[in-house]
UniProtKB/TrEMBL annotation:
NCBIfam families per UniProt: PRK08416.1
Pfam family name, one: adh_short_C2
Protein name, UniProt field: 7-alpha-hydroxysteroid dehydrogenase
Organism: Malaciobacter molluscorum LMG 25693
Entry keyword annotation includes Oxidoreductase: yes
Keyword vocabulary terms for this entry: Oxidoreductase
MF-aspect GO terms: cholate 7-alpha-dehydrogenase (NAD+) activity
Gene3D superfamilies: NAD(P)-binding Rossmann-like Domain
InterPro entries reported for this sequence: NAD(P)-bd_dom_sf (IPR036291), SDR_fam (IPR002347)
Family: Belongs to the short-chain dehydrogenases/reductases (SDR) family.
UniProt entry tagged with the keyword Ligase: no
EC numbers: 1.1.1.159
Length: 259
């Protein structure tokens, strides 16, 4: 348990699987109370709540949120206020795939406004709406740390990833603007940009096996990235050890982007 982190509260979107779930457990292990969102599978979310509370002795609660309706963050945070007396960290993690990204996931000539707009809503708008609500609460406790998950797909070409990659570039720009304006409140804002990570979202890619094998081949470390790799980076950006890091994108890609 980390003395600095103990008793603080993390709010994270999309906490039932992949990177989000890894963050829930990483922060809870350090004594941080957890409020996370889920989209549809309430039972899985409730099971995680019970497991986290029994393993780590922290307070953990889950809340339903459709990331394509980011204006609902206001009501969500009001719900969280009823369960927690402070908010110190916010991680914008939830993403969309499947039917919601039709027209946004594909070759350039196949891109369509609806799919692209959905990705923008779930990536940029969701970060803005969530971070605004979190910042209001963080200001009351003297500051905090806000993080957006991102992807190296805005730096290197990934097949069919134009819609996601351009929106990851956009959210990283928004992170820098937020960092510039929220610093006076004692709030740091950063992005964690992952190379291909072995998650359900990646498995939804039509060329998942090719991406998986190519990533391990490109990495000097000879392995695929795991959700815990990004969770550890998010954790670092919330600790005292990163107290002068803001407006930054931390790339966690196993050395693949350079090659």
């Amino acid at each position: 348990m980390n003395e600095f982190m103990n008793g603080k509260t993390l709010v994270i979107s999309g906490g039932t699987k992949g990177i989000g779930k890894a963050c829930v457990y990483k922060f809870a292990e350090a004594g941080v109370n957890i409020a996370f969102t889920y989209n549809s599978n309430e039972q899985v979310a409730q099971d995680i709540v019970k497991d986290v509370e029994s393993k780590f002795g922290v307070k953990c609660r889950c809340y339903s949120l459709n990331i394509l309706e980011p204006e609902n963050y206001k009501e969500l945070f009001e719900e969280i206020d009823e369960d927690f007396d402070r908010i110190d960290f916010f991680i914008s993690n939830a993403m969309i795939y499947g039917r919601a990204v039709v027209g946004g996931y594909g070759k350039f000539m196949k891109l369509r406004p609806r799919g692209l707009n959905n990705i923008y809503t779930a990536t940029v708008n969701a970060f803005v709406c969530g971070a605004q609500q979190a910042a209001k609460r963080m200001q009351k406790v003297g500051g905090g740390s806000i993080i957006s998950l991102s992807s190296t797909g805005n730096l290197v070409y990934i097949e069919n990833y134009a819609g996601h990659g351009t929106n990851k570039a956009a959210v990283e720009a928004m992170v820098r603007y937020a960092a510039s304006e929220l610093g006076e409140m004692g709030i740091r804002v950063n992005a964690v940009s992952g190379g291909p990570i072995d998650t359900d979202a990646l498995k939804a890619f039509t060329n998942y096996e090719e991406v998986r094998d190519r990533t391990a081949e490109l990495s000097p470390l000879n392995r695929m990235g795991q959700p815990t790799d990004l969770a550890s980076a998010c954790y670092f950006l919330c600790t005292q050890e990163s107290s002068w890091v803001t407006g930054h994108t931390l790339i966690v890609d196993g050395g693949t982007t350079f090659k």
